[in-house]
Amino acid sequence: MFERLGLCLRAFRELSGKSQACIAREAGIGKSQLSKYENGKELPKLESLRKVLAVLDVSPLTFFYGVDVIERGF
Fold first, then answer.
1. Could you give the percent of the chain with pLDDT greater than 70?
2. Binning pLDDT at 50, 70 and 90, where does residue 2 land?
3. What's the pLDDT score for residue 3?
4. SS (H, E, C) the chain
5. Distance CA 62, CA 42 (A)
6. pLDDT tens for residues 22-56?
7. How far is CA 72 from CA 9, 20, 24, 36, 42, in A?
8. Which residues contact 30 (CB under 8 A, 6 or more apart)?
9. Does the model's pTM come out above 0.85?
10. How far, in Å, CA of 59 to CA of 35, rounded?
11. Please, is 57 exposed, middle or buried when counting C-beta atoms within 10 Å of its C-beta (0-12, 13-18, 19+)?
12. 73: number of CA atoms within 13 Å, CB side?
């Protein structure tokens, strides 16, 4: 699950055209922390995930739908 969540987070970030550093700075978290989330090494706290999704302008519903799509292999 962590890996798929991270893949989805990375996909939305890449679609935004922004770097990890830019997203992390705007969300008020560390770049290394965001990297851990994207690489499935750590599960983000809900507040951190909320901040990152707000910067990406992605709703939680859209994000978790994306996780489900990745999980199903579409």
1. 96
2. low
3. 79
4. CHHHHHHHHHHHHHHHCCCHHHHHHHHCCCHHHHHHHHCCCCCCCHHHHHHHHHHHCCCHHHHHHHHHHHHHCC
5. 21
6. 999 999 999 999 999 999 999 999 999 999 999 99
7. 16, 26, 28, 23, 21
8. 24
9. yes
10. 20
11. exposed
12. 0
User: C-alpha distances in angstroms, 62 versus 5, 15, 68?
Assistant: 12, 14, 10
Q: What are the structure tokens assigned to 31, written together?
A: 């770049």
Both structure tokens of 13: 């970030």
Across 48-70, average pLDDT: 96
Encoded tokens for 74: 């579409």
Residue type at 65? Y
